[in-house]
Amino acid sequence: MSQLSYKSEFIAPVRRLVIKVGSAVLSDPGGLRAEVIAMLAGQIDALIRGGREVVMVTSGAIAAGRARLNGHPTTIAERQAAAAIGQIELMRRWAIAFEAHGRTVAQLLLTHQDLAERGRRQNAVRTIEALLAAGAIPIVNENDTVAVEEIRMGDNDVLSSLVAGMVQAGLLIILSDVAGVLTGDPRTRTDARLIPLITDPEAGMRGLVAERAGPLGSGGMATKLKAARQAARAGICVIIAAGRDPDTLAAALDPAREVGTLVLPAQRKMRGRKHWIAFALRPAGALAVDRGAADALRAKGRSLLPSGVREVRGEFATGDCVSLVDQEGVEFGRGLVNYPAADVLKLKGIRSQEIARVLGYKVADEIIHRDNFVLIEDIA
């Protein structure tokens, strides 16, 4: 079936969308392209005038700062310095471009921790909702001036998928320097062709050639496919398309026109809490479990009981996310623990009825409840 056969069902009803713009779209080696930013602002203004709410995720701060520093930052400190310089320039350009259409922009700088901690995540959502209600355009970027590898999301493609789920958007548009998902890297393969439709984000993306990142961006098509899969698991449509085409956004929202690659929502939508566990959290430790526990978690939808725990790895607190590892040493799931590492160490191998006797208190029968557990097969 064609892309058009699905757009009326999935795209036409969309009222809130997230648009992610990559560094390779906004900049060249000399810095930001003001005319490209102006062109995109005009397209976004047209969408808003058409009755849609738009949240933006923009890259480009490091690329802009790099041009001002006259060098290529390599260390974390140099990248943070480039981001600190470039973020001002990036937002100034967006503000000027939208001001021409009578619109106000607002900046939100986030780190992985802002989305992983429920309170901070909820604060971000409330801020975005208030901005949209006031008619402002929220523009989100990762806070590269303070983020280090331990707290980075890694790429704004991933950030955009998390933001789309967070604000309950119906569509995520990822604007790239290529026309969409291709069968190969167009920089090295002349026979690369566009894949206009992916109906199954799980099976349909396996085996696709994912090109390396370009000189101005931090992620290639691999990160876009990862972001699309994450968004699809939250029930969100994704379109990956060329960012410098002056008609891309209008075509993306038009049910009668094809553009880029349309990725349909996954058939098995992941509930909000499990999507948060799967994609927004990072494991603070790990639990090695026996074969019976692994089978029960994988195939029977059971909880993890103390009797199934063989080994405790790392230091984690109550409520932290941990990895679940089987007897072969393969991580197969992640979940939120009901007890801290020191207590799980005391409980491993015992029956649930003995928890109160061993610890002197009891929170739950389970180390991880099935409602707080996600299979890795669901998120890989």
Q: What can you see in these coordinates?
A:
It contains 14 helices and 15 strands. The protein has 380 residues and is an alpha/beta fold. Helix 3 packs across helix 5. About 4% of the residues have low confidence. It starts with a helix and ends in a 5-residue tail after the last strand. Strands 5-6-4-1-7-9-10-8 form an eight-stranded mixed β-sheet, with helices on both faces. The protein folds into two domains: 271 residues, Acetylglutamate kinase-like (Carbamate kinase, 3-Layer(aba) Sandwich); 96 residues, Roll (Archaeosine Trna-guanine Transglycosylase, Chain: A, domain 4). A hairpin with a 2-residue loop joins strand 2 and strand 3.
Give the full name of the CATH homologous superfamily of the largest domain.
Acetylglutamate kinase-like
Cα shape: globular
Distance between the termini: 26 Å
Q: Could you give the order of the helices and strands?
A: HEHEEHEHHEHHEHEEHEHEHEHEEEHHE
The CATH topology annotation of the largest domain reads as Carbamate kinase
- Helix- and strand-based class? alpha/beta
CATH class of the largest domain: Alpha Beta
Q: Find the count of extended strands (DSSP E, 2+ residues).
A: 15
In this structure, how is the largest beta sheet organized?
Answer: 8 strands, mixed
Ranges with pLDDT <50 over ≥5 residues? Answer: 148-153, 209-219
Number of helices: 14
> Overall pLDDT, averaged?
88
Task: Give the tally of structural domains.
Answer: 2
Determine the fraction of residues in helical runs and give it as a percent range: 25-40%
Proportion of strand residues: 15-25%
